[in-house]
Amino acid sequence: MKKIAYLFIAFLAIGFSVKAQDKDSLQQYIGKFTFPEGNIVSYVTVTLEAGKLNFSSDKGTGTLEKIAADSFNIPEYQGTAKYVRSADSKITGVVIDVMGYHLEGTKEIPAIALLMDRQRYLKLETNQLAVR
User: Fold this and answer.
1) What's this model's pTM, rounded to 2 decimal places?
2) Domains of the chain (ranges, CATH numbers)
3) Cα four-point dihedral sign 120, 125, 127, 128
4) What are the pLDDT digits (tens) for 32-55?
């Protein structure tokens, strides 16, 4: 009986761990994506609520359902979204195909991230000057 109880607890722990990893892995997709002037939408903001990715834009809202790595269905608009990554695997944009439209947007970098990058750059420059 103890073995069954331990086995049950182990399965529960694994289940919670996998669910936590899913939530953490979805976190990477959130952000604001802007599209060039002349597109049907100017921006899309992706959020994570209750373990699900949601989006809002100046034309409507909906959900993103994961179908593969970096690929999602957009059921409300019979479309798809595919995230674009840089060489260092950071998400830099999104490509959306929906209702006959092909949209390519870039991820906005939050001001705090720009500030942190600037501080890292200045620190690197200072270290390089000290070495010279």
Assistant:
1) 0.67
2) 29-131 (2.40.128.50)
3) positive
4) 999 999 999 999 999 999 999 999
